[in-house]
Amino acid sequence: MLRSSFVRSRSTLARAYSTKTLKIGLIPGDGIGREVIPAGKAVLEALPKEDGLSFEFVNLLAGFEHFKQTGTALPDETVEVLKKECDGALFGAVSSPTTKVAGYSSPIVALRKKLGLYANVRPVKSVDGAPGRPVDLVIVRENTEDLYIKQERQYTAEDGTQVAEAIKRITETASQRIGKMAFDIALSRQALRDAGAPSIHKTSTVTITHKSNVLSLSDGLFRETIRKFYDANKDKYGSVNVNEQIVDSMVYRLFREPEVFDVVVGPNLYGDILSDGAAALVGSLGVVPSANVGDEFVIGEPCHGSAPDIEGKGISNPIATIRSTALMLEFLGFPNPAARIYKAVDANLAEGKILTPDLGGSSSTQDVINDIIKRL
Ligand code: NAI
Ligand code: MG
Predict the structure, then answer these.
(1) Mind telling me which SUPFAM superfamilies this protein's record contains (predicted)?
(2) What is the pLDDT of residues 64-82, one digit of tens each?
């Protein structure tokens, strides 16, 4: 097992394990999760031998269907196998019921906690020649705190009306490690550009997004911690520009001029909202990947859900999962096969002939998988 973060040792890993077999946990979940996870597996299996990687796969259970059958959404065995046997994993999607079901909570949220996956990394990139303004950014969303700690309370005020409150928790520890992640990602994107990867950016910039003009303590701590970390580590990150943008004007600029953003780092809630919004800039939720990253583990996960409206029709777009698979490899310390996968996907999109219906085409999931594999 690799058991190590890209942040600490991605380059050493790539060297040390250059002919390594990686064991990948596959967690399809519900709905179209079961249609797209095989795409990630197929692409890994199709990587040319020269990349020096081979793969073992282990199928793992989780999801609402599994909950309905067994009363458990995330079996202990799934977590144990991931922790003890796997180098990384791919997660499809799970359905969440619209009304509260006793005993059920989302397995991906639980997995993020149990595996210490404190960063949600969401690259959003347009294809050359696509209509609209070019986009090549990555949102680095803090994944463990902020309003999502779900410490809410509701009570009756003196005048008899209801009041609800939620705690927004920001810590120096979580802010610093997400800031570090953002700067490391900025450096590795720059290294890829320096090695010839096409990009609309010439230099790297980390934009800290916050609302510290109003929330001067909580968002103020987030902003100041990241700035302090940068100032203390200029020897390493000095080539990265640092910017900041208040979150409401961030939304405005994201839609007006997305091309100015490279790496955007934000607390949990703003990161969540900005990353779904950014997906709208590139045509379909079906093409936007993510990775849940910690110091010990990484799970690639398409941004979309279980899409019950298209389940079983064979038309779900596999690209979000295929890009998530590449992202997982990147964080495991294998940038070259990752770059190969990104290139094959970009070539499929740029040609624009073999596309699923969400992108205006009439091809099937399998047609797209086959076309991308052909281009590896
Ligand atoms: P969704 O992402 O499943 O679907 C939104 C729209 O995008 C639908 O019209 C769907 O057909 C389309 N779409 C999504 N992925 C696509 C793909 N790969 N190819 C083509 N079209 C695609 O979001 P929705 O409908 O709000 O939620 C459905 C279920 O998924 C709910 O139960 C929700 O709780 C769950 N969900 C799970 C997530 C996860 O597991 N991480 C994330 C978001 C939603
Ligand atoms: Mg979201």
Answers:
(1) Isocitrate/Isopropylmalate dehydrogenase-like (SSF53659)
(2) 999 999 999 999 999 999 9
